[in-house]
Amino acid sequence: MSNLDEMLKEAPVLTFDAFPEAEQDTAVAPARETVPVPEKEEALEIELTPEEQKMVEDFAARIDLSNTRMVLQYGAGCQKKIADFSDTALSSVRTKDMGQVGEMLTQVVAQLREFEEDEDTKGFLGFFKKNTNKLANMKAKYDKAEVNVNRISEILEQHQVTLMKDVTMLDKMYELNLNYFKELSMYILAGKQKLKKAADEELPALVAKAERSGLPEDTQAARDFSEMCNRFEKKIHDLELTRTVSLQMAPQIRLIQNNDIVMSDKIQSTLVNTIPLWKSQMVIAIGLNHSTDAARAQREVSDMTNELLKKNAETLKIATVETARESERGIVDIETLQATNQTLISTLDEVMKIQKEGREKRSQAEVQLQKIEKEMRDKLLEMSAAG
User: Which domain holds residue 165?
Assistant: First the structure.
């Protein structure tokens, strides 16, 4: 990234040296001078201001087609810049591993799908609308999924930071490519101006001179200059091919940048929408389960209270009726008195009967006792008389 920043600070230059940093001898001393180019245009179509056009014309006037080294090195420095730039862009593409980000997003989805559906109950909250003994299992799954999701989220955040840095880097690469494109276009424009002047003025002048003088060296000079023009024209064509590469690089950079932005957006959506929504729905689901349990407990308490009130009312009724009934009773029921009286009368009758029978038995016993005594007395007398 720092290399790109340094490269962006460099204004486009026009030079006859293949590598502007190195000091090289050229046939034309002024050719080592560089002509700064104004800041880049936003579009790839080059539109030169009058000042820029004058820069190109001044540079074209310094081109010496008779200098073989100058022709060979013409635009080589800019071509090397674009080649190095292409290598940098290719390296950036190679180091990207968007597959890992995709796999992580898939893992997030897989973790969240574990809570989507359970048996016949559908929907994200369906898992929790069963009986309460699934709450512990659900919490265990949630804890496990949360750990994995948080771990994946941290890695995705790191990838997102990297992607955003890449987007910034690609912006700089795009700007740098515009710089190189403009610089290369100015080389081409200056070269074509020089070729036009050579074809329209310099070469006809050499041919006319050779025809006038008839000297072999003048003829050879005209032929050499014509060959040099052909080589320079091929050089300009090579520069145009290089410019085409630079032209194609612009949409390629934007495509890569767009892919990075899309992937970053997906990560952002996952981090700020999908995962927080999943967590909030989990909290709601657990809260609903708790509310259901509380409602069930409250219903049981209410049922027990109503049942208790009914039983207490029934008990109170029985107790009140019994109390009222007992309060209206006398100390001794009339039936009890009647039964007692009948028993007492029967008892007295029995006593009187027993007493009567006793008197009769005593009277009988008395007669028997008198009889016994008389018999005993008579016997004793009889025994006395006999003795």
Answer: 2-298
Q: List Cα–Cα distances, 78 to 47, 51, 75, 237, in angstroms.
A: 19, 21, 5, 14
Same domain, 239 and 370: no
pLDDT reported for residue 83: 77
User: What is the pLDDT, as a whole number, of residue 204?
Assistant: 92
Give how many domains the chain has, as a whole number: 2
Reported as a pLDDT band with limits 50, 70 and 90, residue 45 is low
Domain boundary among 272, 298, 324: 298
Answer whether residue 100 is part of any domain.
yes
In a domain, 187, yes or no: yes
Residue with tokens 């029921």: 333
> Is the whole-model pTM more than 0.70?
no
Tell me what pLDDT residue 329 has: 66
**pLDDT digits over 12-23, tens only?**
567 666 545 433
- 222 φ/ψ angles, rounded to the nearest 5 degrees: -65, -40
Contact 4, 84 (CB under 8 A): no
Selection from 258, 256, 260, 266 nearest residue 105 by Cα: 266
Same domain, 260 and 125: yes
- DSSP letters of 24-69? ---SSGGGGS----PSPPSSSS----HHHHHHHHHHHHH--TT-HH
- Please state the length of the chain: 387
Instruction: Give how far the C-alpha of residue 139 lies from the chain's centroid of Cα atoms, to the nearest Å.
Output: 19
